[in-house]
Amino acid sequence: MPRSLRRVDFAPPREPSIVLSSPHETICVNLRRVPGAKRFTLRVRSAKRDVVLTMPWRASVSSAREFAERHRDWIGARMRRIPAPVRFEPGAIVPLFGEPHEIAHREGARGVVWTEVGDNGERLLCVAGRGEHVARRVAEFLRREALKRLRQSVLAHASAIGVVIQRVTVRDTISRWGSCSVSGALSFSWRLVMAPEFVLDYLAAHEVAHRRHHNHSPEFWALTKSMSAATDKAEAWLKARGSELHRYGAE
Q1: What is the pLDDT of residues 106-115, one digit of tens each?
Q2: pLDDT digit string (tens) for 7-61?
Q3: Which of 105, 100, 153, 145 is nearest to 129 (CA)?
């Protein structure tokens, strides 16, 4: 058989998803074929607010649909447990370093975005300018604050253990909160700005420690804990509440 035909024989199917419909809800299930998979598995991802069905490479879409249909109640229950998305709009409550702030639109005010305390002691995230710019300005403010605080923590930890950091950046990552390249470039999720400060500082220490140990060996964890006494507390917080950070800023 020609080599080109063999490649076609192993090409994945084009259908990317299936839809489960009922009188009460419609759920889209994304299909993911994995060559080494031996069975069907389902995962509800809070960060993306979606469902992924992992399936063996040669399994049929109809078999995947039957599997998903059998677990429809489980999928629906898990999807309903995902917190509702929060838009960056006036009146919305958004955490800043773990403290809830209400977005207050100040159309005629000078400036861009700032924080202040209201008459009743409530924390406010004030946004100047036209209403259609509120969401963008809040997102930009949070990214700037995240980068500023993370850079401060990173440089402090790097100085403490004598390592060099090439650069610090923030992105909207889902699979990980931070990363460290072999060249010393660190990247973090900007959403950490909404977590308590001890969580943000722990992530900075975690990635800086990778400049000494590019692994998760006992030596790595010992170094991380020597820089961040809140390591275990922060890990527990991220496991319990980290996914909630992805609900903010929905379009």
Answers
A1: 998 888 999 9
A2: 434 444 455 788 888 777 788 899 999 998 899 999 988 777 889 999 998 889 9
A3: 105
Structure tokens at 70: 């059998």
Question: Based on the number of CB atoms within 10 Å of its own CB, is 14 exposed (0-12), middle (13-18) or buried (19 or more)?
Answer: exposed
d(CA 109, CA 149): 26
Report which DSSP code applies to 92: -
Phi, psi of 194 (to 5 degrees): -90, -10
Strands 113-117 and 93-96: unpaired
Do 196 and 203 contact (CB within 8 A), yes or no? no
How many contiguous H segments (helices) and E segments (strands) does the chain have?
Answer: 7, 11
Domain segments of the chain as ranges: 3-81, 93-247
State which CATH number among 3.30.2010.10, 3.20.20.70, 3.20.20.140, 3.40.50.720 fits the domain covering 93-247. 3.30.2010.10
| Token couple for 123 | 């924390």
Q: For residue 176, what is the DSSP state?
A: -
Q: How many residues does the chain have?
A: 251
Q: Which helix (H) or strand (E) holds 142?
A: helix 134-161
